[in-house]
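BUG: 3D viewer hangs when loading the predicted structure for this chain

Environment: internal workstation, default settings.
Expected: structure renders.
Actual: progress bar stalls at 90%.

Input used:
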Amino acid sequence: MSRDKRLDSIRILIESGHITEFKQIFHYIPKSVIGKHLRTNNPRMSRLVLRVDELTVQEIVSISHLIEVDFNQLNNIVFRQYFNDQKKRK
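Structure tokens produced before the viewer hung:
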């Protein structure tokens, strides 16, 4: 099975700073692609996109391997979304 070219696009967008929050990844690729990789269902993926605090470290590691970006880069965009969401809730 060949690698989904959209994953390369996401990597480039993350590395160039165009994707700054986790949910922005899904403007370019369906949740089902990442969900299949994580072996989780679509309702849970929808919840993870909106509530990144429910992502596990293992899931972040797994997604970073899939997208082929450094764990710290992906972790930073997850945390940025978390902190921005917290500001909006207050």
